[in-house]
Amino acid sequence: MIKIRNILEEIMAGRRMNEEEFRLLFYHADIYDLARAATKVRDRRFPEGMTTFVIDRNINYTNICSCKCSFCAFYRDKSDTDAYVIDEALLYQKIDEALDLGATQLMIQGGLNRELGLAFFENMFKGIKARYDITIHSLTAPEVAFIARNEGLTLRDTLRRLRQAGLDSLPGGGAEILHDEVRSKISPHKIKSSEWLDVMHAAHQEGIRSTATMMMGTIENLDHRLYHLKSIRDLQDETGGFRAFIVWTYQPGNNELMGEKMSSLEYLRFLALCRLYLDNFDHIQGSWVTQGKQVGELSQFFGADDLGSIMIEENVVRAAGLSYRMKIEDMISMIRSAGRVPALRDTEYRIIKTFAGGLA
């Protein structure tokens, strides 16, 4: 269609996409044309031809959670035999192991455990910073809101204290779909869409940068996803505090929600449109964790400039019955197979090392 080609040409030239055009392109554009447009926009922003990745460790400090989201297979009740709160010795052991494997970032996340107050997190972060030179990219918006509510503090006061204790940046988890019609069904006890955005707004005001995420493929429709994308694009216009956008797909299995797994073609089509629509986001991450290594490789042809983390430890997706493991050699090979230069980065997307001709 000439109209679709014209829209894509205008967007590639720098015009902002609107929601009506997103719908038109999602349902009717040729997937090759979307890939071409997303790649051109990505390459104009990052002409060096690099695809980045980070080495980090996901550490879950507790699996006790009051939210009990229907899509989650990780949470436990306090009375369950396998419920836990991590102890200091195990925490430091995991960090030592991560550093030995080259990690520069910790993603410390957990359930909403009413017995863990702000002091627990302050002591944990202060203890880590006293012992290690590593970035604490930790706590999702629901966790921050939960801590603030339990302590009777504002979001900004809570975030300020967490930052003073050692928190460096926030991951975008807990967003799922930022539309309350969806959230009321899949995560009714989790914070509302506006509250997630409020946490991110407060974090950006406190100088804490973050990522934005989306989990798609549960019960939502395209309009719900678009509402989500517009919400984060609007907030980014205001604060500029998001470093990256990461979209992954819901994994049915071992949970109450169940359902069908989203096709890789739909994921790639949507990923390309995210690159085109989120014109104020620098980094768009491709997901190999939920889509697998082959689709992770293909995501680089659909606008992704980053492939996330090696992920030394990941328990939430694994609890749903899916576990794609990745070694640094595999990540490098996956990037090279797409004709791009692998580059190891830190949390702030500063390049630590490139792998143009080998692992060294």
Main traits of this protein?
four-stranded mixed β-sheet; TIM Barrel; 10 strands; three-stranded parallel β-sheet; 360 residues
Outline of this structure?
This protein is an alpha/beta fold and 360 residues long. The protein has helices spanning 2-12, 19-28, 31-45, 88-100, 118-131, 141-151, 155-165, 180-186, 193-205, 222-239, 264-277, 293-298, 316-319, 328-336, and strands at 50-54, 56-60, 105-109, 135-136, 210-216, 242-249, 283-285, 306-309, 341-345, 351-354.
Topology:
Layout (H helix, E strand, L loop, with lengths): L1 H11 L6 H10 L2 H15 L4 E5 L1 E5 L27 H13 L4 E5 L8 H14 L3 E2 L4 H11 L3 H11 L14 H7 L6 H13 L4 E7 L5 H18 L2 E8 L14 H14 L5 E3 L7 H6 L7 E4 L6 H4 L8 H9 L4 E5 L5 E4 L6
Strand-residue proportion: 5-15%
Superfamily (CATH H level) name: Aldolase class I
Tell the overall outline.
Answer: globular
Structural class: alpha/beta
The succession of helices and strands, N to C, reads: HHHEEHEHEHHHHEHEHEHEHHEE
Distance between the termini: 48 Å
Rounded mean pLDDT is 89
What integer value in Å does the Rg equal?
Answer: 20 Å
* Share of helical residues: 40-55%
Largest sheet descriptor? 4 strands, mixed
**Low-pLDDT segments:** 314-324
CATH architectural category: Alpha-Beta Barrel
Total DSSP E strands: 10
What is the CATH top level name?
A: Alpha Beta
**What is the fold-level CATH name, i.e. the topology?**
TIM Barrel
> How many structural domains are formed by the residues?
1
